[in-house]
Write a structure and sequence with these properties.
This protein has 207 residues and is an alpha/beta fold. Helix content is 36%, strand content 17%. The chain has one domain (7-206): Rossmann fold. The longest helix has 28 residues, at 179-206. Its EC number is 1.6.5.2.
Length: 207
């Protein structure tokens, strides 16, 4: 990734793989927009054992995010499976570590979006997306959902909300991300990329 090219940080936590698949589709949508790149990052699990330490680099998938990834991004796409209508603890733990960015206003006027996966159709998709945006608003970010101009929102029978892309994983978390859900992820990636470029240019003019 070029240091000079603006990028969308696609930051997620995934337990069974569905949220990771969604993140990859959002990144594909970002990468389809000229002039901007996607940066895929994940977070480490949270252990109930104080002595447990994970390796600094995961054995597979995206590498772990650090604050510089967030500080230097032009936009953020935040993804998590649902945990009782809220984001998973590992992602919340990372977000809770961003006070220094909040104090410096590092994320003000940068666009953000969220995406999620649930085991059941009414298992908290919308409440998870809505609660995920709360810390982003505290950071002064500009939240972007999925508008109904994306007609797939009217066609899907599983995941997909105006608050952000979503996925129905099934009670065993083994249902693949389907065609409609993928399309909405790609559309969300394209939208956040376009907004990132527009707001990036505005912020550069203000410097």
């Amino acid at each position: 990734m070029s240091e000079m090219t603006p990028y969308v940080l696609v930051l997620y936590y995934s337990r069974s793989g569905a949220t990771a698949t969604m993140a990859q589709q959002i990144a594909a949508g970002v990468e389809s927009v000229p002039g901007i790149q996607a940066c895929l990052r994940t977070v480490a699990p949270v252990s109930t054992t104080c002595e447990a330490v994970d390796p600094e680099i995961p054995e597979q998938g995206a590498v772990y995010a650090d604050l510089d990834d967030l500080r230097n991004c032009s936009a953020l796409a935040l993804g998590s499976p649902t945990r009782f209508g809220n984001m998973a603890a590992p992602l919340k733990y990372f977000i809770d570590s961003t006070s220094s960015l909040w104090m410096n206003g590092a994320l003000i006027d940068k666009p953000a979006c969220a995406f999620t996966s649930t085991s059941s159709l009414h298992g908290g998709q919308e409440s998870t997306l809505l609660t995920m945006l709360v810390p982003l608003l505290h950071h002064g970010m500009v939240y972007a959902g999925v508008p109904y101009s994306e007609t797939t929102l009217l066609e899907t029978h599983t995941g997909g909300t105006p608050y952000g892309a979503s996925h129905l994983a099934g009670t065993r978390s083994d249902r693949s991300v389907d065609e409609h859900e993928r399309a909405l992820c790609v559309a969300q990636g394209k939208r956040i990329a376009r907004l990132a470029l527009a707001l990036h240019a505005i912020r550069q003019e203000a410097l």
